[in-house]
Amino acid sequence: MPEHDHGLLFKKARTSQIVYVNQPYRFDRAKLEEWCNERSLIYVTCDKRHSFYYPDNTDMVLVMSNDTYIEYFDLPDWPQRWEEMR
Predict the structure, then answer these.
(1) What gap in Å lies between CA 4 and CA 84, rounded to an integer?
(2) C-beta contacts of 5-10 below 8 A and 24+ residues apart
(3) What tens digit of pLDDT does each residue of 30-49 get?
């Protein structure tokens, strides 16, 4: 993954759903878009204040499969706290 920093993987128990959480200080959306498209992945960016590594200073980018994205689409506060990117 381009420009990854402070990354964590989260897996939903008893499923194959995995979300990679990347929290870089900055990233290039075009590079991320290309990287995700080559792998049929979806990414979602969150407001910097919701980053748990260094709130207000690191971006928080979630990368996942389409199936996982569909499951997470019902998150509370969607889309107020989340910005969908494909």
Answers:
(1) 19
(2) 5/58, 6/53, 6/54, 6/58
(3) 999 999 999 999 998 888 88
Which tens digit of pLDDT belongs to each residue from 2-26?
Answer: 888 998 888 888 888 888 999 999 9
Give the containing element (helix H, strand E) for 62: strand 60-64
Q: Which residues contact 18 (CB under 8 A, 6 or more apart)?
A: 9, 10, 11, 12, 64, 65, 68
- Name 43's Cβ contacts closer than 8 Å, sequence gap at least 6: 32, 33, 36, 61, 62, 63, 64, 85
